[in-house]
Each structure stands twice: as structure tokens, then as C-alpha cells.
Amino acid sequence: MAANATHSGFCDNSAFWDTDLLLNSSYPKFTQCFQDTALVWGPCGALWLITPFYLLYMARVAKTAGSHSISTNSFNVFKTILILLLIAVSIARLVKDASQDYVPTVKYISGAVYIVTFILVAVLMHVERRYGFVTSGVLFVVFSLLVVAGVVPVYTGIVEKDHSTQFYLACAYFVILLFEYLLLFKADHSYPRGHYTLGARPQCPEMLASFPNQLTYFWIISLIRLGYKKALAEEDVPTLNPRDQSATVLPPFEKAWYKERRRCMLANRARNPNSDSPERLERVSYVRRSNDVNGANEKTRLLGQVPRTTVQDGSNRGEKKPSLTKVILKVFGGALFVSQFLKLISDGLTFVTPLLIDELLAFTTDRENQQEWKGYILACAFFVVCGIKSIFYQYHFHVSMALGMRVKNAVICAVYKKALTISNEAKRESTSGEIVNLMSVDCQRIQDVMGFVYMVWSMPLMIVIALYMLWGTLGPASMAGLAVLVLLLPTNMVVAYKQKAYQVQLMKIKDSRIKVMNEVLNGMKVLKLYAWEESFLKKISKIRNDELNILKKSAYLSAFSTFVWTCAPYMVQLASFGAYIAISSSGYLDASTAFVSISLFGILNMPMSALPMIIPMLIQASVSIGRVSKFLSSEDLDPNVVMKDSRSDAAVKIKNGIFTWDTQMPQPTLSDINVHIKPGSLVAVVGTVGSGKSSLLSAMLGEMKKIHGIVTLKDRLAYVPQEAWIQNATLRDNILFGNGFSKSKYKQVLHTCALEADLAILPGGDSTEIGEKGINLSGGQKQRVSLARAVYSDADTYLLDDPLSAVDAHVGKHIFTKVISNNGALKDKTRILVTHGIHWLPMVDHIIVMSRGRISEEGTYEELISHEGAFASFLKEFFRNEAEAEVEEVENDDEIEEIKSQVLQRLESVTSDNDFTSGDELSGGKEAESFIRQRRKSRQSLTRSKSIDIIKEEPKKSTAGTTLIEEEKAETGNVTRAVFLKYIHAVGALVFLSMTLIFTLYQTSSTYSAIWLSMWTDDPLLANTSMAGSSDYNNKNIMYLTVYALLGLAQGATVLTFALVSASRMVKASGQLHMGMLDNVLRSPMSFYDTTPMGRVLNRFSRDVDTVDSALPATIRSFYQCIFRVTGTIITIAYSTPIFLIVVLPLGLLYWFIQRFYIPTSRQLRRIESTTRSPIYVHFSETVSGAASIRAYGVQERFVSESRYRTDNNLSFYFASLVANRWLGWCLEMIGNLVVLSSALFAVLSRNLAAGLVGLSVSYSTQVTGALNYLVRTFSELETNIVSVERIKEYCETPTEAAWINPYNRPGPSWPDQGKIHFKDYQTRYRPGLELVLKGVTCRINSGEKVGIVGRTGAGKSSLTVALFRLIEAASGSIIIDNIPIGNIGLHDLRSRLTILPQDPVIFSGTLRMNLDPFDEFSDDEIWRALEHAHLKDFVSGLPGMIQYECGEGGSNLSVGQRQLLCLARTLVRQTQILILDEATAAVDLETDELIQKTIRSQFSGCTVLAIAHRLNTVMDYDKIMVMDKGRVSEFASPADLLANTDSIFYGMAKDAGLV
């Protein structure tokens, strides 16, 4: 019908719109007014409206991204020429129109609009080039509209055979417009021709892709093609788009987080003025405990009783906490809004489909009265609408998933930076394992949920619109369906509540499992030496079983949720159709009503079927956001604790300082600290163990919480910690530590730090890779590398925390003389040295004496020793301990002994304590001097020429090359069938078969219900509405409705069975895979741990196990659903229109080809992404352990940059995978849209097709696009997640040690009862491909003999001891202990019968009792007896819980000395006949050394003892000496016999050491 209003003067009496003209013509005919207005003003007006915003956008992007302009080239010149031609043609058309006798006003306006619009286009093109835009989405969209609008006058002229000049000009205009449009499919050249970007990896192609290329993701096709031809390598994949890099996303995130924290702090302060005041810490009331016998010191600060603190108004209840969600929305809200807007358009287009189905059914039922072209237009409309929907849907996911990646990038970087600034007190609440979980699991969950945020609003919106449209189709009957939904809502709320509770529990248990796993990997050597693997296997398994129980509960809940929401749409359909039949006047369910409703129910089904997956995901993300928020909100180290003042008169100054490690402890760690250290001075800090020496240095570094006082530093610091921190890098990189390389300076540092000889031993010299935590260096070497780093840094002030304790006396003297002393390399620097070596004290400028956390005395050496005070007491204690230690002594250099003798004489001259110089030990000054001189000769170092200490030798010393840590292997090619079979076997092959059969029954009943519905609507009896109300009519309806209900019941029963079976068995499979990997990892040889970074193993136990726990089962269920849904849809369409099978085959082949083309690239990208993820965690673990050193050197930014680089590198592969997945999704959706087009066309072409079958065919074809899209996602996720099974399987199959127990050859319960050891031509190597480290060792050690093993570095001493425990296996020969070859018995039978006291004390989290007796084999009395002999009884008695006291992670709440004494207690508990001492006292202080040696001599007097000599004098009183040389036993006899032979190696060593 013509529009009511005509525009006589404006449009020459033409109506704007005429429906009759459009629909009843032989072709789609539009009025001339519509052509001259809407088709011109619409596209042009859109451009003018958006131009101001577009200009602002370009200016902002150019400003932030720093884009450079695009130079003039042939391509953009040609585009400009075409625009000028369009302007010319538009002018010609206007001139031609104006030459007519009568010209409507609209012609002038439309012609002018065209001209000014194309001028604007030319201007925009110039501006785009200036701002560096290689493509224009705005112009592409506008030209798309112009092309569509331009088609109308052209086809109108062709049909009507118009030969006027205006028609030819319109054709010319359209051709030029089309050429310009096609040019917009290509991007401009960002760089001049011949320009190449330097770098190993190509630039991100997205930056150079045209807008349509970006919409269809074809810019990734070159990478997919390359991946199809060969296995991709890292260098093949483009770098990350700068938009997504951490340098772009982190600064605004940090700024927003800071503002959010400040907002909460101010709100809390306003609510409670005293709650967050700066003085709050000063109000902590330290209450001294009655059992605090020793006062506050380093030993007690973490071990005291539960404290009493009084804080004024300190309630935390109701405090506002920073919201990570708010920060994410504030920073990334713009991109999130864009993605949600795209989804809104996609959702809107979804509801066009039911309207088209209604129109198509109306066309087919009234075909005779309709124009033929209408059917084809409707068929094409299905394709166009679905195609546009696909573009918006896929681009929504691209934007949201890339956004998730940016959020993850920002959060990971923020967590890393937080780990560098978190206070030591807050750090105890988050173990390294927990923080790794934050970075791996929680950040991933936050990323994943960003792609599904739309569900929060889209799901309710789609349900509301679908119900509204159902009301229009079914009327009041749709309310029955709504009632079903309302009844199901409470179920949803209960499920969500329970799921969240389970997730919180699950993450806590996961944290504790990773924490224990982290400790196990750190202490693996100790576990193997003590044969404790089974104990920790049970401990981890117990935690894992708790985790699996919660997983199972959560899985059952998800199964129930799946059942409810799978049945819900069908129940809604059933209720609605039943109500419709009951209340409609005819009682007839016609095809249009049924299949439009089915289409709407299908739309309704989408959000409902997603609910079971989305609810857990949203809950997991909510829990993860809370955990990350809590960590990021934890307390930082106060940067204002230490002030920098370059004009200060002191290098370090502390005034009235009170410091603590823990505000909850009864006493502060340091009190009344006043320090004034002059620039360039050498200051020694001395005191007994636990007196606060190391804490004083920490206070200077700003590592402690300052309760009161002022700390001022003048210049830059360098720090050498007591436990050396070594990076997993080359030796040179460890020393340079980011500084520039100066050859002369570097050589000088190596010489002064006594590292030159080490380079000769290491296979690659200073390019040798030092393993994780310095695994292939001895304790002394690590300390010297740490010192070399400090010296090379050329700082102004050096804090040296006992760097000489881990080296031999001769090396110590060399380092002190060449580096630390006033004649050394640091002579002009300020040096603060913590030391136990009293012989250095006469050579220092100033001495600070610490006692019980206070400075008890300070001054020069002469000032302090000239009177009897705290310093004199300290010296007396030192000499008393030395005298008691018989022949044990830390220092053993001739010159050093001379200095000590002078110190003793001076001490005696000023003290009156007769106890010190009386009794059996010393009776006078001369005797004291004689005693010292006599002992001097028996206490020399192993060799004077030895400038390095004994290395942990051959295990790490590979002549095969300089690389120790192997690159993580990324598999190539298809995920092998073995990987799928591994998982199927874990689930159960029969179970998988049963699941398939059950789901087949479900899909069969679902498909048949659709066919049954078409039969219902086409039933001729029911179509005859004149019979409505008759018994036959009603019975027929009841029959159809009953069968339809039974089919629904069958679907519900089968899907519930499937969900329950899959839930229980997949949780069990996850448990089996974890157990298999754990068992295999614990059985792996030590060579595996030497070459595999701990972070890499932890990655398998955290991220990969989490994937198999949660993501993989959900993906498999979705995969089942998608495969069967697509199959069922195709069968349904083929049933209704058999001709459809003609296109199924070619489309199926195209689908298969695209999948095969895509899969190799996707799979390899996922693998590379997995392998590049591990270095993030390795670097993070390394950073956490060395945080104090990193802060001291002020290199936080460099480490943050390295972490950001690793994260960006990892995400570049994820992003490439993401885009490849989107490309596949777009391609497959286009195939789905072709299916819709084919179905609609066949419905139009098949003239005799029943309406019910047309409705069935078309309504199901519209679902295939969504099904294929979902199939792509689930297939991609399955591919991704199955890689985790592949990675777990890899660690389930790594080579293992020999069996723990050999049931056919077990030694007797008392073996070894004699302790006789016989080496028979024994040879061994550390790993295949390496040289032999023991070469034909043959010797006998008799029962009860004490054998000292000596030899130069690399001689094979440590190799001999680890061979006894079979940490390395024999290449040939054998070792026989008490007549049993150790190679024939199980490893645990061997290792549990030997005892070793290792050099490094390893303590596990758990009770003290568990650390001594993990298998509960000994009584409490025996444990207490061992603690008494280990000199720990008094200490443990004072602990809460005593032997049930919980040790911190890695024994963090015990001092180093206490840890070593606890290790001694382990050996005492075991009390085996054979004891091995592996440099057990090499790195401990004097007091601990003396306690250990005393206990060994008294408690192991009747045992066979093998001791690797850290110092030659320690084994001079042994029964025999074994001299190792180049892997062979060169000499083996008593010390006296060897010394009698002046040609022996031992004699030469003793002579060099000054012992003879």
C-alpha cells in the first residue's frame, strides 16, 4: 500500500514506500523517492555522523601508540584517483539531472550529498595515512552500504531496459564504487617497499591487516599454511600485538589498583580514624612471656608462643577491601563494552531467524499467490542474516578472548611485582607454591571467564525475548513454559551456592598439595638418601584424595545441573504445547506454530544448556579473583623504612631503631639500635648464634618492619646473603647481574674472588650453565659467585653476611685479603661484615657486638679488647668452644693460627675470668699459646695451593657441553593415539563405550522427538479442525502428546545416567593420572632433577592436573553433545528433504579439509604455549627465593621486565592459537550458513513438501550453525586440554630408578650388622653419554673402621658416597656390604639401612616428629633421646606442641644451625651400622660444627664411618685415609703409614697444608 504522505514537490509525486509495489512486482521494485533518499542519505549520513568520533579515535590511538605516517605509494594514490572519479561522476550525474526540464528537489540534495561525502572520504583517507592507519573499518562499512544501495538502480535499469544517460552514469558510478570497495579489502603499506623488520620473529600481521581481513581472520592464514607444511617452531610465530603486551596493559592496571587501594584505605580511615593510622604499628604491645628464657633473638622470633597484641580500635570487621573486579572493569571496561555490544547485535540477529521461518512457511503454504523471487530472497536472507550474525559472534569472541588475555597479562605481572614488594610478615601467609597457583590456575580462570561475561546479561535477555516471541506464537500457553523455568530457578541458586563453597575448599586443598609438592621437589635428594619417598607419596596422596572427594561432589552437582538444564527446554516445550492444545479453540498444533516455537525453544535452549558450564566457571573465577585480590592487597615492605641521603655524613646510619620480623611476636627482634658507619670503613658485626647479626643487615636493607627509629643510607648497596642466591644462568651472567661486560674488570673479580681455578674445571668455563639454585656448584663456590656479583656491581656500601663461613680457611684468607680488607679490591668502599672468624677482627676499623637483639658493645678492636665487656665474653666463649672441640676447628691456616694466638694472649691480659684459663683445658697464658700453636699444625686446610673448596663433583660436571638444564620438549605432529588411549584406559574402555551408547540413546530420542513433532503437525485428522473436540481428535492429540512426553522422559533418564557415569569415572581417571605421574616422578633418578627445573615439574602438577581435573571432563561432555547434535541435525534435515544429501558430501569434505588444514597449526601452537609457560614459573620461583638480593641491588625493574618478556612471549603463542581458532570458527560457520541456504533453497524448490517437513528442515538447519560453531570450540578445547594428558603421560614414562623393594632378594632385618664394605672394580657415570667418574675402584673397608676420603677437586669423593646409596648406578663392577651386592637388592632396603648426614639441611613442612620419623617406626622416647644427643632437647621442649610443633615451609621458622642439628637427630634416630658424612659441617657456624662433631664421635663410636674431608685435619685421627685421584683410589692406608711414605700423595697434601 502506498504511504499516506507523498512528497509532490520534493519527490515528484513519488511515494517514499509502497509495499504493494515491492511484493507484487515481478522483481523487488522500490519507489524512486526511496532510491533517491534512503539509499543515498542512509550510507552518507552514517559516515557524517561517525566522522567526529572517528577523528577523535584516530588522534587518541596515534598519541598512545605513537604511530608513524604512511608514505605516498601507488596503492593509496590509485584509491585517491578512484575517489576523485567518483566525485566527477557524481557531479556529472547532478549536472545531467539539472539539465532536465523538471528536476525534483531531492535530486539536487542527493547529488550534493554524494559529492560532499566523497570529498569527506578523500579527506579521511589522507588523515588515516597521516595517523598511520593501514585500513579503515568506517570506510569499509560505509562503502558496503553504498554498494548495496548502488545495486538497486542498476538492476532496476537492466530489468526495465533503460538506455538513458542517467542509467549509464549510474553504471559507471557503480563500477568505480565497486573497484574502490574491492581496494578496501587490501591494507595500505605501513612501510616502504623493501623494508624488513629486524628480529628473529615476524611482526604481528593483525597490525597490517585490512578491516575485512580482520573480520574474517584471514591474516593468520599464512601461519596456518606454514603449520600445515611443517611443525611450527617458536621463531615462526609472530610476536604479540603491542596492544596486548604488558608494557601497554600493566601501567593503567597498576594505576587503577593503586587508586582502588587508596580509596578503601581512606574509607576505612574515615570509618575508624585509628584503624589505619601510621602509628598503628607503634601501638603493638610486646608482652614478654614467662617461658621466653633467652629473650628476643633470631631463633625465637618465629618460634615464640601465641602473642598478645593490643591495638587501639584495631578491629578489622566491616573494613572495605579493594575490589579487583572494579579495577578490571575500570581499565578494560571499554573493550569489554565493545565485545558485549557485538554480542548484543549477534543476539538480536538470532531472533530474526524465527521470523524468517514463519515467512518461509507462509510462502510454501501459499505458494500459488506469491511471487517466485520472494522464496529465493527468503532463502538468501537466511544466509545473509546468519553470515552477519557469524561475523558479529566470532568478532565478539575474538575481542573478549583477547581481552581475557590482556587481563591475565596484567594480573600475572601485578602478582610478580607484588612478590618483589610483599613484606616478610605477609609472605608467610602465601607460600611459593600458593603464589605459583595464583599465577597458573587463578589467572587462567580469570582469563577464561572474560569470554563468557556476556552470559550474565545475554542469557536473561535471550530468555525474556524468546518468551515474549513465544507469547506471540503460542499465546497464554507460553506461560506454562515460563512456570517451568520459574520453578527451576531455586535449583539453580542452590547449585551455584554449593559450587562456590566447593571451589573455595578445592583451591585451599590444591594450594596445600602444591606446597608439599614444591618441598618434595626441593628436598628430593634427601628423600632418596633416607628412602622417604613412600612417606611423602602417602602424604601427597592423602591431600589428593581430599581434593578428589571435593571434585567428585562438585562433579555430581554439575551432573545434576546438566540433567536439569538439558531437560528444562524440553519440559518447557512439553508444557507449552500441552497447554496450547488444551486452551486453543481448534486444539490443532499447526506447522508454523510448532516450528517457529521450536526455533524459539532452540534459542531458549542455548543459554540454558550453557548454564551447567557457565555457573562453575563464573564461581571459579569469582573465587580466583578473591584470592588474587587478597594477595595483591597484602602488606608491602615499607619503602620509607630506609631513607637515601647522598649528603649524609655516614654510609649507614640507624637512630633509635626497633625492628621486628613479626608484629605478632612477644618481643621485637632488634631493639635500641644506634649505628653510625663512616664511608669507606670496614665494620665487623659479631655475636653468638641468634644474637641478631643477620637481622641487623636486614634492617639496613629495609627487609624488616620498622617499629621505631630512622635508617639512612648514603649510596648504592651490594648484598651477599648468608645462603647464596644463584640464578639458573651462566656463571658469567650470575656475576655480571645485568651490568655491562668489561673484560679487565671481570678477570680481576674472578681472581680476587678465587674463581679462576673453577673455570678450568667447569666444561664451558664461565659460559657453563649453572643449574637451578646453583645445583652444580658447591656451597663455597656459590658463596664466591655471590661475592663476585657484589664486587663486580661496583656499589658504594657492601653488606656481607658471613661470606667466609662456607669456604676453607686458605680461601677465606685469600678473599679477605684480596677483597674485603683495607688492602683489597673494596678498600675504598664501605664494608659491613658479619663473621664468626675472630682472627679478622684486628684488621677491621670498627666492631659491633650483638647480643639478644641489641648492640651490647661497639668500637675499634683495641677499644673493645682493652676491657672486660661483651666483646671479651664473646671471645672467651669462642676459645672455650674451640678447646672443647678437641681437634675440630674452623680455621686452619698457619697465619690465621698465629693471629688467633695473639688474640688469645691479648684477651688473657685484660680478663680476670679464671674459669677461662684453668682446669684441664688451659692453665695459663703460656699453656694457652702452646695449645694454640700445637693445634695449628693439625688444623691446616686440605691443601695450601687449593684456592677453591671441594666441589660437588661429577654429577653436574658434564664434558658433553655447557648446558645442564634441558629445553622443555614440545611434541610435534598429531596427538598420538596413545595419549587418547591413556585417558580412555584411565576412565575405563567399557565405561567410554557405555557413555557413547547412553548418549546415542539420548540423541536418538531427541531426534525422533523432532520427527514425531513434524508427524504431529502434518497429521491429516488433526489438520481437519472441523473435528476439533471429538473423541478421535482428542485421543489423537493425547497420543501424540504422550509419546512426545515419553521421548522427553527418555532424554532426561539417559542424560542423567551419562552425566553421573562421566562425572564419577573422569574424577577417578584424574586421580589415576596424577598418581601415576607422582609415583613415576618420585622414582625418577637424580639426573632427572639435575636437568629439569622445578618450575617445569610444578607446572605439570598444578596447571596440567587442574586441566585434567576440571576442564577436560567438561570439554569431553560438550564434545559428545556437539558431535551427536550435529549428526542428529543432519539426519533430521535429510529425513525431511532427502535432496539435501546432495550438498552434505561436498560440505562435509570441505569441513574435513578445513579441520585438517587447521589442526596441525593449532596443536603445535598449544604445545609451544605450554612449554613457554614453564619459564614464567621457573623465573618466578627464582625471584621469590632471591627477592632480598634483587631489592638490595635495586634491579627490580630488570627482573620485572624479564618476567614481562616471558609472559608476552608465552601469550603470543596463545594469541596466535586464539586467532587460528576464530578463523576456523568463521570458516565452519560459513559452512553451516551454506547448510541453512541449501535447506531453505530445497524447501523453496520442492513444491510438494509438507509444511511440517519444511519447518522441521529449516528450523533444524538454523541450529546447525550454532552446533558447528560450538563443535569448533569444544574440539579446539579438547585438543588443547588433551595436551595436558600428553604432558602428564610424558612424566608417567620418564626413566626410573631400580625397584624400591626386590621381593626376591631382601636382606635380613639386622643387615648390615658388621658394616664391611667391599668395592670390586667399581665404575660409574652420572648420566648416559658422560665420562666415567669412578674408574675401577677396588678396596675393602672393615667393620667399625673410620675412613676419611680426601682428594683434590673432581677426584670422585662425593661420587663414591652417592654410589653407596645407588643415586648413580654401576657401569661395571660392584659394591658389596656385609657379603650382599647392593646392586641386587631394592633401593629402599639399601638406603634405609645406611645413614648420611648431608651438607645441606633440608626440612619439610610438618611436625618435628615427622621430620625425624616419617614412618612412625620409633617411640617418642627414642625421638626425645635423639633430640637430646643432638643438643635440641631444651629448645624443642620450649616449643608449643614440642615434637608436634609445625615446621614452616623449608624449615623457615628454624635457624640454619637448628636445621643442621635436626638433620643430625635424624641420623641418631636411624642409628645404622654405616654412617656417611658428606661435608656435613662445611657451611655451618663454629658452634654447630662443634656440637655435630662431638655427637658423631660419642654416638657412632662402634659404626663404620666414611667421611668426605672438608678439612684435612678432621680425618687425621681416623683409622684409614682413602686418597681419590681422577676417579681412582690412589692410596688407602692409615694416616701414619701414608705419612711415613714421603712419596705418597697424602704426604704431599699434608706437607702443603703444613701438617708435617
UniProtKB/TrEMBL annotation:
Biased composition (Basic and acidic residues): 923-932
Domain of life, per lineage: Eukaryota
NCBIfam families: MRP_assoc_pro
Protein's name in the database: ABC-type glutathione-S-conjugate transporter
Alphabetized Pfam families for the sequence: ABC_membrane, ABC_tran, TMD0_ABC
Membrane topology recorded in Swiss-Prot or TrEMBL: Multi-pass membrane protein
Keyword vocabulary terms for this entry: ATP-binding, Cell membrane, Membrane, Nucleotide-binding, Repeat, Translocase, Transmembrane, Transmembrane helix, Transport, Vacuole
Cell compartment(s), UniProt: Cell membrane; Vacuole membrane
